[in-house]
Amino acid sequence: MNGNMVQALNQALEQEMLRDDRVVILGEDVGVDGGVFRVTEGLLQTFGDERVIDTPLAESGIIGAAIGMAVYGLRPIAEIQFMGFVFPGFNQIVSHAARLRNRSRGRFTVPIVIRMPYGAGVKALELHSESTEALFCHIPGLKVVVPSSPFDAKGLLVASIRSGDPVIFLEPKKLYRAGRQDVPDDDYEIPLGTAKVVREGEGLTIICWGAMVPQAQEAAEAVEEKGIFPEIIDLRTLSPLDHETIIQSVQHTGRALIVHEAPKTCGLGAEIAAQINEKALLNLEAPILRITGQDIVVPLPKSENYYYPSPARIVRGIKKTMEF
Amino acid sequence: MNGNMVQALNQALEQEMLRDDRVVILGEDVGVDGGVFRVTEGLLQTFGDERVIDTPLAESGIIGAAIGMAVYGLRPIAEIQFMGFVFPGFNQIVSHAARLRNRSRGRFTVPIVIRMPYGAGVKALELHSESTEALFCHIPGLKVVVPSSPFDAKGLLVASIRSGDPVIFLEPKKLYRAGRQDVPDDDYEIPLGTAKVVREGEGLTIICWGAMVPQAQEAAEAVEEKGIFPEIIDLRTLSPLDHETIIQSVQHTGRALIVHEAPKTCGLGAEIAAQINEKALLNLEAPILRITGQDIVVPLPKSENYYYPSPARIVRGIKKTMEF
Amino acid sequence: MLQILNEKGDVKKDLEPKLSKGDLKKLYSFMVTTRVADTKALKLQRQGRMGTFAQSLGHEACQVGSAYALETNDWTVPYFRDLGTYVTLGFPLKYWYLYWMGNEEGMHIPKEFNLFTITVPVGSQLPQAVGLGLAANLKKDRIGILSTFSDEATSTGDFHEALNFAGVYRTPNVFLCYNNQYAISMPRSKQTASKTIAQKATAYGFDGVLVDGNDVLAMYVATQEALNKAKNGDGPTLIEAYTYRRANHTTSDDASKYRPAEEVEAWEKKDPIDRFRIYLKTKGLWNESFEKQVQKDAEEQVEKEVRDAEATPSPPIEDLFSHTYSDIPQKLKEQMDELKAGLNEDDQ
Amino acid sequence: MLQILNEKGDVKKDLEPKLSKGDLKKLYSFMVTTRVADTKALKLQRQGRMGTFAQSLGHEACQVGSAYALETNDWTVPYFRDLGTYVTLGFPLKYWYLYWMGNEEGMHIPKEFNLFTITVPVGSQLPQAVGLGLAANLKKDRIGILSTFSDEATSTGDFHEALNFAGVYRTPNVFLCYNNQYAISMPRSKQTASKTIAQKATAYGFDGVLVDGNDVLAMYVATQEALNKAKNGDGPTLIEAYTYRRANHTTSDDASKYRPAEEVEAWEKKDPIDRFRIYLKTKGLWNESFEKQVQKDAEEQVEKEVRDAEATPSPPIEDLFSHTYSDIPQKLKEQMDELKAGLNEDDQ
Ligand SMILES: Cc1ncc(C[n+]2csc(CCOP(=O)(O)OP(=O)(O)O)c2C)c(N)n1
Ligand SMILES: Cc1ncc(C[n+]2csc(CCOP(=O)(O)OP(=O)(O)O)c2C)c(N)n1
Ligand SMILES: [Mg+2]
Ligand SMILES: [Mg+2]
Description:
The complex is a heterotetramer, with two copies of chain A and two copies of chain C.
Chain A: E1 2-3, H1 5-19, E2 23-27, H2 43-47, E3 52-54, H3 59-71, E4 75-79, H4 90-97, H5 100-103, E5 113-118, H6 133-137, E6 143-145, H7 150-162, E7 167-172, E8 181-182, E9 196-199, E10 205-208, H8 212-224, E11 231-234, E12 237-239, H9 243-253, E13 256-263, H10 268-280, E14 289-293, H11 304-307, H12 311-322
Parallel strand pairs in A: 2-3, 2-4, 4-5, 5-7, 6-7, 10-11, 10-13, 13-14
Antiparallel strand pairs in A: 1-8, 6-12, 9-11
Helix pairs in contact in A: 1-7, 3-4, 8-12, 9-10
Chain C: H1 21-46, H2 60-67, E1 75-77, H3 83-89, H4 93-100, H5 126-138, E2 145-150, H6 157-169, E3 173-179, E4 182-183, E5 186-187, H7 188-191, E6 207-212, H8 216-231, E7 237-242, H9 261-268, H10 272-282, H11 288-310, H12 317-321, H13 330-347
Parallel strand pairs in C: 1-2, 2-3, 3-7, 6-7
Antiparallel strand pairs in C: 4-5
One thiamine diphosphate sits between chains C (81, 120-122, 150-153, 180, 182-184, 245, 249) and A (28, 57, 59, 81, 85, 88).
């Protein structure tokens, strides 16, 4: 198939549901409506309303029910309509999904996927632009995954569904329909926990994920004329982090720039910077910079671009790092 | 008064309620029972049940109600019985308390204090030992405060109550009755956002807060015989951070060690390390180490000490940093 | 179900509220203004001059009738589909347009209005509304607090925690549910097995009343009774306003995917404005020239508010940083300075 | 309120369940064992051999009677005060003691038991119980799911979201509330203005029943009916078991601070075991030697379980790291190795 990220995700869901009848979907408007972004389009018709469950608006109920279904042996995929609405269900994730395996010494596992569109850049209403991945990365027991292309979206979602652990699967809604790509109709997985060098380079490593990947790529192209050729790592899995790929790259390039759209303080960028400092201090030729959203609420659409890390801001970060 | 932290907090509450009749308290068992840790003891008797409100078990209801009361002009203090139980109310904190000022362009403010006992080391049940301060530090609009002594507890709580912002006030339950101190009966504030050098030293800065402060002090004493004299910073306010004190100290000592009991990944230690790297890279003579809880759930009492950063573990961290 | 005006505009004499001619005409004009402002917003949205928003079409009676029962000191805690409430309160619609245009200036709420912000996470405003009630009780202020929401909010935990608190502390809250039969694509019948939403009040030890939400008189009467009860210290009320969301969920939605056109048409016949027009006519309060005047006034008001909104620039960058805390912490100053310096650089 | 045995042990003949002599004796012995195990735990706690825990004193009938109605394939989702449920299920009490001793080995739940873990955040197990029900429906498994909780859980948002889902999907859930009149210091009357907890079911479109929670026969009958209804596809039930928490909330609590001794004494007179003993005696199923045997068996069983628990070492360090994920990620391996190396160093 040649398709966009929504289509790639939809294909992943359909194929996994065909392959494994333990896979079920639940969430608000996922059935008749096919999801507000149409990621679950057509699945109700194919699999019926016991496997594609339209639920009342109740994020704690949805995630809690998914946990129970998983304990009973199913592989539920819960859709949260926007990442900003996951918090009413946060307790179920943090206190239960992440802990039941440990709490039962392995007897009960929670192989659920919690899918949510995340991120800004699409001129949405308040609480429709959040990017709070760092909160989930701090919780032991969760895996956190973010694709940046249709190909990765399918492979990562398949791997997430088959994983034995609760996976927070973040979909960059800015990239949902941003471009088409060849996506194999065959079954394939992209192993969780493996980052990808999406651009080889020298002198600087840019670490990013999701919707920031194309922004970083644009910035990297822009600085070529200045003779700067950054390496770019797309993390793909945010938890557990692929330390090795990050550290190796920075040991090679000597400089690191982290780009994320979440607020700066205690964002995942901090963890990455801390690890680079710990493991590659002697390689560093400049401080590790973070180009991120500011420590404010994502502004309403007309002011959103002040918040959103633009290629221009990334370029400034690159220059600052190179000129240190 | 010469008293422990519980008594200091109780005095702060009583005095602020006497001084300002907008101050009200609400939470589970805060009235008749005086709170499960007795921090609100006697206040119901003094101030009546409209100002000291026993609530049903409903953390979202409690925090949401506190927000509404604040909007109406009161200064509510909500008690969450243990930090592990704040998550059902997380949405009210993240989506509302932290945002209402901005959402209303300053018309509505949320001067609430959300008090919660936090932390391990007291052999408690599951979810009674959490230390998830980093989650709150990532949210713009919140202030996060942690005392480590009776004196600071009173001064910081008074400042928090008088602050115009929502404050997450974390009480290290391990220190609740750990020692007595002279606490002035007079009114005093410790300004939010100011860290304190609790031990001057050379060659290494240890950054910590709450119940880790005495652990770090013990470790620092233990390494004196080896000729190592660490400086210790007690952050006291975790958000916004007192960068200046941290950076100045590390510029002076050249090495940094961060100690916290939360899990390592994406803990506040990561943010501190990232900032030191950014602002004092050239001063660093060794990688910044983090001695923290592991990335697991706090174990049940009998295995808890494997998790909890002990003076011995901190000593090992100090040695490793000094020997780099 | 409390109904005073039926679909044909017939009135139940014994239940008819004692409203002056002026009041009745105002109710009508507020409903018309709501529809005009809503229609205008849809047009602006289609032209790319406004962002996604939630239309109020069909909710005019339940919004206007309830808000008309509010007194100056009462509080209103609205939800995201409440245009008629703003119109009735006399709130400057400029801000309403600005908000949905994505301009941060639209977040202003002038001090004169005891009106809460729009709450995006469904249901989460309800505990806050109860907090207002607790505070009013403590201060011995004799006020009522009207909070609105739609059917789906009743599925949230916050609805439950809020109403339970309200029952326990007998706060002066009126919980008004616009049961408009849908939550995006989810029909009311699948949201809860409860026969009515009103009956959910049983769980909290206070009254629930079912009201025809397309009957502006019934909405006015029921809300006023509930507010009076609240002010008399007799505790909260849950009102279920039975109505229908005739538009798409928002301008990003396509309702034809999940419901039949006939259903929508059937509800068009129950139009709240048509019904009230017949009533006014019967009472000799309506004629063509009155209608024209009302329409003209509404259009002029709306055009002016839209013009004002479109003439309002987005706030300066400082504004994005100055409402996060009571002060601007050092790190935010640095971030703001960095942003400004960067923009200057880009400009050069 | 459904009552079959009154406080004096008199039986309502028409409601009496058809239980064999063996069943009746078992019910009695489970209640006695529960009390013996509970008393033993309190003693261990006072001696510092066990940590804080929540006593079940007074809950023997509602725990044992309900659990006795379970069939092998049914599921149980307990809460933190449910010793009688474990006893009745035949769960090895060794694990129960280990858990409250703070030994991680106590977190094991042997595969034979369709028994959920203890959930510490009040109410949050209920959506999970509904998830079990949804899964059972999907798999067409004819089972019931019994989930227990106490009165205060009904104040939580999760209670509401769970019961609403259960009503909508008609899951085979039985929601059993031990209304023991207190939530730590908060009396039931101040937790909700609802007259009964049973009536809260109205909000979810299914039945609520009020049962004497100190009457083991009524508890058995009501639970069995509800489970049968669930298995027949007739949807969920909310059971309110009216009882009393006679002990402190936990061993860290001092209930004398917030409730009068007379209240506790009044409820001692309604003791569920005493009541059932009279019934058995009337039926000729009880005499002194039977009593002695039951007590002796209970004590022996409990002593053995406690001995086994105390002989169980805490798990090795690896165990703390190996149940966080399906695999052990690199960072956890490093953290574990660091911990082990450090401990070795300390030992030297
Ligand atoms: C907590 C939360 N989850 C999901 C959403 C997304 N969402 C917005 S409106 C809506 C449906 C609301 O239906 P209802 O409450 O009946 O309001 P109506 O649209 O009918 O006015 C949903 C699911 C949200 N805003 N908040
Ligand atoms: C979400 C949450 N908040 C607070 C607590 C602390 N807490 C433990 S038990 C309890 C009271 C529970 O009362 P109830 O549900 O009636 O149970 P009972 O003790 O009567 O068995 C409280 C407040 C908790 N466990 N979970
Ligand atoms: Mg609706
Ligand atoms: Mg109770």
